[in-house]
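Lab notebook, design round three. We kept the backbone fixed and only want residue identities now. Task for the bench partner: fill in a sequence for the structure below.
Input structure tokens:
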């Protein structure tokens, strides 16, 4: 299936997308994430500039890069534009976060596409950076949270006992939020500790460990 059906469907979707993008003005949305194996995954989306109800969003490229740097990102974007036969003059803007290499690759794109290319930085990223300032300053709080999280969730048995204990105390049986560095969950985790701290201490004192 992977060798026959997937390539066929991929080519069909690529042909359909090329036809729908032909002659349209577009905005590029690009971002990088890290997969489970610590690989850099760079995604490029294309949104058509039309009336709101007619706009279309296409996944132009998803590439695993050896390194997330301006050179690799710029090349990936240019190849995506060439793949869908998009004229450089029809590319009106690029949206990404405020990482330095992101800003640098936009400068590289302007040398090819033109200085009229608008650069829009994602405000969600900016707000997240502001919200995480306190977590960098309160290092001892982060250390305490990490120890608590590890002590409660390091094994399935202990996690199960903790959730059962919360039920016995008529508390909402929920565990810590996701990884501290993702989606401003550091704030949610701090709030969780403040709300459940006394219950956690009682859990430890009752020899549930």
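Proposed sequence:
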């Amino acid at each position: 299936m992977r060798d026959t059906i997937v390539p066929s469907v991929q080519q069909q979707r690529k042909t359909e997308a090329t036809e729908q993008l032909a002659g349209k003005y577009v905005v590029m949305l690009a971002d990088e994430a890290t997969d489970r194996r610590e690989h850099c995954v760079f995604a490029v989306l294309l949104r058509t500039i039309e009336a709101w109800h007619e706009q279309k969003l296409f996944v132009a490229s998803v590439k695993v890069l050896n390194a997330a740097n301006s050179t690799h990102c710029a090349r990936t974007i240019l190849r995506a534009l060439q793949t869908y036969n998009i004229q450089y003059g029809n590319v009106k803007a690029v949206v990404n976060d405020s990482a330095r290499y992101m800003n640098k690759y936009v400068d590289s794109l302007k040398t090819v596409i033109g200085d009229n290319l608008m650069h829009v930085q994602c405000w969600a990223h900016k707000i997240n950076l502001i919200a995480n300032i306190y977590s960098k300053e309160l290092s001892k709080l982060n250390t305490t949270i990490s120890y608590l999280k590890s002590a409660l969730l390091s094994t399935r048995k202990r996690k199960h006992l903790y959730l059962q204990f919360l039920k016995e105390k008529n508390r909402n049986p929920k565990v810590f939020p996701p990884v501290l560095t993702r989606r401003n969950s550091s704030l949610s985790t701090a709030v969780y500790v403040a709300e459940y701290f006394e219950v956690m201490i009682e859990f430890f004192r009752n020899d549930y460990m």
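Keep this in mind before ordering anything: The helical segments are 5-21, 70-83, 100-113, 123-131, 133-137, 139-153, 156-168, 185-205.
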